[in-house]
Amino acid sequence: MGWIQYEPDVSKRRKFMDDYFEEVLAGYRSETNLEDSMLDQLPLFIQLNLMENILGRFEDMDNNWEEPGCYEDLLYLIKCLEEDISYMGFFHEIYSSEEPFE
User: Fold this and answer.
1) In Å, what is the CA distance from 84 to each residue of 7, 30, 100?
2) How far, rounded to the nearest angstrom, does the alpha carbon of residue 79 sit from its chain's CA centroid?
3) Cβ neighbours of residue 92 under 8 Å, at least 6 residues apart?
4) Buried b / exposed e across 61-87, counting CB within 10 Å, b at 16+?
5) pLDDT tens digits for the chain (102 residues)?
């Protein structure tokens, strides 16, 4: 997400990331054939990545003998998954640019 994660205006974050994605996609397509159907699967891939992050946090707790506690970042990820908030909330009012995810 880079420096744009600190932008408090959701519409500016979305515009920047849309432009960035188009540039990256154009570069990727100049080297590789990419079907539009694969791009249609991108939201699903991001949700799977979100679930992997959540499970990874629980696995880390288990491996370190930690009791599940009230971890703000974990609760945030779970809320995004439960409420189907796409892109881990990056384009949603739930996202706080003051405490962005790295």
Assistant:
1) 23, 33, 19
2) 13
3) 10, 85, 86
4) eeeeeeeeeeeeebebbeebeeeebeb
5) 677 878 888 888 889 888 988 999 999 999 999 899 998 998 888 889 889 988 888 888 778 776 666 577 788 888 888 888 777 677 777 766 455 444
- How far apart, in whole angstroms, are the C-alpha atoms of residue 90 and residue 28? 23
Q: How far apart are CA 41 and CA 3, in angstroms?
A: 26
CB 42 within 8 A of CB 28: no
